[in-house]
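hey so u asked for the seq, here:
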Amino acid sequence: MATFNTLPGFREFYPEDYAQRKHIFQIWRQVARRFAFQEFDGPILESLELFTTKSGPEIESQLFCFEDKGGRQVSLRPELTPSLARMVAARANGLKRPIKWFSIGDNFRYERMQKGRLRCFTQLNVDLLGEQGPSAEVELIGLLVQTLIGFGLTEEDFFVRLSDRNLWMLYLAAHGYEGEAIGSILGVVDKWERMPEDKLLAQLQEVAGEKAAELKAAVDTFLKLDSLEAIRDCFAGLAAEEAATEELSARLVDWKVVLDGLGAMGFGGFVKIDLSIVRGLAYYTGFVFEAFDKKGEFRALAGGGRYDALVKKMGGPDMPAVGFGMGDVVLGELLKARGKMPEFVDTVDFFAVTGGDDEKLAALSDVALLRQAGYSVEYQLKAQAFGKQMKAAVSSGARFSLIYGSEELEKGVVKLRNLADRSEQDIPRGQLLEAVRELV
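ran it, structure tokens below
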């Protein structure tokens, strides 16, 4: 006989597991709505070209892609941002700005599985489009912090590392690098914490040649900066053109807007300047950020940044955008490790206990009435003695039992028993709904 197993990297959710997953979704949705974001979704299956246009052809090795029956090259979505950009581009002229959208959906990546990384995962995506200024970052990072706080996490549990690709471009340009060279260097910086020094130097040599050691020293210096004052002082020691100096001053003003805004929200203690965060994807164009647990036990909890060029790349107008994604896998592991994942018990409002066939028919009439009114009601499908039914009522976690015996049927009442304190009362069946509304 064949044995079927779940595919590697995919999950199944038994009711107790699904309750925890639903809890994560509920907090995600509640916080996004409090920030006045609207929920949307896109197709799970998209054109392969949509993802290669955004990330380059090399991403194909990480995708669940294939040729469909119509001869089209398609892929299960590895992320939602390209679909979002396409959808916004299609209706850009008719959308009220700023566009504040969020989505909760499954994504698929065919890659090596690691702790906190699966091939199918659910992700919260939150994006704000149409706002050029740093107020968009304040809103997005504020939402990110508030979401994690919503799970009971505190400053002792997580922090947000905030960086800026624009500062990196100014800094590397002051050292004589430009264009594709800067992109290559940032690709190395993205791996800086995880790569041995000899490999870092080898990769930098591909960009800087014999100046690789000098470039590494410059990068090391920049990575140590953790305040706006330190950043300003670092640039003061570099020979830069007047235009670059003006651009730096304007950028530091943007930084102050972000940090002051988050401070005013009460989130300043959650945010740390950390220039090692560059987000390896080339489409990021400004501020970038990632949320981490403070003990360093897990992968990043969330990550995002500004991507001003993507909507235009997808055929739409030139539109600024910033967004982030938060996956359920790492978040769920962190909540369990910190004791922040609630234990869920599936209970019902009422449990109907019945005698013979006539009593059961009377009960079914009331059960249907209560269910239509929005209450959850359970009863035993097969005939059982009263004692067994009462045990089932208690084990179900119901708050009340509804007892239908021959005596109750003759009187035209139902006996309502509070299963917590064992108190009872007879309620005329015609008044049952009115009576329970005062109790539940």
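The mean pLDDT is 92. Residues 1 and 430 are 55 Å apart (CA to CA).
lmk if thats what u needed
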